[in-house]
Design goal:
The complex is a heterodimer.
Chain A: E1 2-6, H1 18-32, E2 36-42, H2 46-52, E3 60-65, H3 74-84, E4 88-94, H4 97-109, E5 114-118, E6 120-121, E7 126-131, E8 136-142, E9 147-151, E10 168-170, E11 180-187, E12 200-204, H5 214-224, E13 227-230, H6 232-236, E14 257-261, H7 267-273, E15 278-283, E16 296-299, H8 302-317
Parallel strand pairs in A: 1-2, 1-4, 2-3, 3-10, 4-9, 5-9, 12-13, 12-14, 14-15, 15-16
Antiparallel strand pairs in A: 6-7, 7-8
Chain B: E1 2-6, E2 9-11, E3 33-35, H1 37-51, E4 57-64, H2 68-78, E5 82-87, H3 94-108, E6 112-116, H4 127-135, E7 139-149, E8 152-159, E9 162-169, E10 172-176, H5 188-194, E11 199-202, H6 204-207, E12 215-221, E13 230-231, H7 235-244
Parallel strand pairs in B: 1-4, 1-6, 4-5, 5-11, 6-10, 7-10
Antiparallel strand pairs in B: 2-3, 7-8, 8-9
Helix pairs in contact in B: 2-5, 3-4
Classes of the chains: A alpha/beta, B alpha/beta.
């Protein structure tokens, strides 16, 4: 039996979130035996499949090219994966909003319990996963014949995107459910790196006071080539869109450097960023819980500190 | 149409959980329990749809220990019409809960099911999707806006890149994200009124559902603690440390 990874993509490019899932799959395959295959389902997505074939350690890419698989509708994808499941011991997907939407539907159709958001592979049937916003780590063993798994991207070093040359095999789709339709997407456009794969993240919280003030953060982010994130409080207040949110129910990130500005450090925010390598906190309240996890804390008025930081970083670059 | 909302009793979101010394789980004795915050949003949305005249009745379901009655009462105090408790002392995993909900739904016949996108205890994010699969219904997860026009629903979802809107014919399962609404507080008169609203109790056996867990928790540990670092005095010192000590810029 082999291990299958569901690739995440937009029909044009493979998303970076796929690579840590492949890395987790490789660990599973090493424990369980078998090869790692990747499924690329979509519309006009052969280029993505060719790209996936280059990922190091992949034995085969399955390409399901069909209009029904456009926009990743779980109702249509699930029957396809259920059909493939007979050949696999484990099926993994990134724990992104797509993976989280799709995989429980697959699991229920197979009558198995999904193992959500794993952060380590212990053996072929045993995995570690964070619970209670990462305040506890549970080691769980699955008794199901096929393991349906979502993978926490920050917990696995991404597989190499090149070096492999797996064959691409076109497969027949399964009958699509056709009970739902995609209407539209309003995706944020940004020149900056994606939050979940950025090396540096500058995040703002309620202390930013308004969405307009986020340009102060953006200037600092531009000096560092960083992504811009936000706390739930800042998103709820309408300062920035929902896809900026870092935390238990937003994005889980672990960059080399995380700069938290005007963020107090609620448990649910810490859950999304406490695995960052270096954390900097800038806050006017020296009692703020964020300082308990920060490597470097700077107490003061962010509206003074941010322009100074931008200038200082500019000086060092010259 | 009827709307059915599922609510879970969880450790209150303000409680700092402690891992038990014997590593069997998290301490829940003498800890404040509340309704899962995402489920509160689900209750609120069902009530708003009723207030708009789209939904005629809001049924609240919870599965678990007898104290889940309190969670149902909270929803009734917010304004829901009646409750169903599926009582069980067993550990109920999302697949089991989805099967229990399916059994209740087949009796009650709602056309809209609203559930929190995830519970803040096990952070699984599965039940709504599983329920939709078992029923063969469309699903709209992580909803930030629900628009219903006759039999057709259009739901805006919070996805990694921004927002996405999907449409389908009811019946369907919708799971809630944070921005869908801000749940109301129950007023004192409504809390009193809720005490008289009916709650029917049933069991997994009565519903014919096998709830044997498929995942066995071998141990629960505390994660490695992050040590707090140092406070720096100036921006220049901060940049210097990031460059020369941490070497991250």
């Amino acid at each position: 039996m082999s291990v299958l990874v569901i690739a995440e993509h937009d029909n044009a490019a493979l998303k970076a979130a796929t690579l840590p899932a492949v890395a987790a799959a490789a660990e599973v395959a090493a424990a369980a035996g078998g090869d790692v295959h990747v499924l690329v389902a979509g519309t006009g997505c052969r280029a993505v499949a060719e790209k996936a074939a280059q990922i190091a350690g992949i034995a085969k890419v399955l390409l399901a090219d069909d209009p029904a698989y456009d926009h990743g509708l779980a109702e249509n994808w699930a029957p396809l994966i259920v059909k493939l499941a007979a050949n696999y011991s484990h099926i993994l997907a990134p724990a992104t909003t797509s993976g989280k939407n799709l995989m429980p539907r697959v699991a229920a159709l197979l009558d198995v319990m999904q193992i959500s958001d794993i952060s380590a592979v212990v053996s072929a049937d045993t995995f570690v996963r964070p619970i209670y916003a990462g305040n506890a780590l549970a080691t769980v063993q699955s008794k199901d014949p096929v393991k349906i798994i979502t993978v926490r991207g920050t917990a696995f070093a991404p597989a190499e995107a090149s070096g492999g040359s797996a064959p691409v095999e076109a497969i027949e789709g399964a009958a699509a459910a056709g009970i739902s339709e995609f209407v539209r997407a309003e995706l944020s456009k940004s020149e900056r790196p994606e939050l979940t794969s950025a090396r540096v993240i500058v995040s703002g919280g309620r202390g930013m006071q308004s969405g307009d003030n986020f340009h102060l953060l953006e200037k600092v982010a531009d000096k560092l080539g960083a992504a811009v994130g936000a706390s739930r409080a800042a998103v709820d207040a309408g300062f920035v869109p929902n896809d900026y949110q870092v935390g238990q129910t937003g994005k889980i990130v672990a960059p080399e450097l995380y700069i938290a500005v005007g963020i107090s450090g609620a448990i649910q925010h810490l859950a999304g960023m406490k695995d960052s390598k270096v954390i900097v906190a800038i806050n006017k309240d020296e009692e703020a819980p964020i300082f308990q996890v920060a490597d470097y804390g700077l107490v003061g008025d962010l509206f003074k500190i941010l322009p100074e930081l931008e200038e200082e970083l500019g000086k060092r670059q010259q | 149409m009827k709307a059915l909302v599922a609510v879970k009793r969880v450790v209150d979101y303000n409680v700092k959980v402690r891992v038990k010394a014997d590593q069997t789980g998290v301490e829940t004795a003498n800890v404040k329990m509340s309704m899962n915050p995402f489920d509160e949003i689900a209750v609120e949305e069902a009530l708003r749809l009723r207030e708009k005249g789209i939904v005629s009745e809001v049924i609240v379901v919870s599965a678990g220990v007898p104290q889940c009655q309190e969670t149902i009462r909270t929803a009734l105090a917010m304004g829901a019409d009646r409750g169903v408790l599926v009582q069980s002392d067993a550990e109920l995993q999302p697949l089991s809960v989805a099967k229990l909900l399916k059994a209740v739904i087949e009796k009650e016949g709602p056309e809209l099911v609203i559930i929190g996108k995830q519970a803040i205890d096990d952070d699984c994010n599965q039940t709504g999707q599983m329920l939709a699969a078992l029923l063969g219904w469309p699903q709209a997860t992580f909803a930030s806006k629900i628009a219903i026009d006759g039999e057709r629903a259009e739901v805006t979802r919070e996805v990694d890149g921004g927002l996405e809107t999907v449409a389908f014919k009811l019946p369907a399962v919708v799971t809630t994200d944070l921005r869908l609404n801000e749940p109301r507080y129950a007023s004192l008169p409504n809390i009193m009124k809720a005490k008289k609203k009916p709650i029917v109790t049933t069991t997994p056996a009565e519903l014919g559902v096998d709830v044997t867990p498929r995942l066995v928790t071998l141990k629960v540990e505390e994660p490695a603690k992050r040590q707090g670092g140092v406070k720096v005095g100036s921006v220049a010192e901060l940049v210097d440390k990031l460059k020369n000590e941490a070497r991250v810029i």
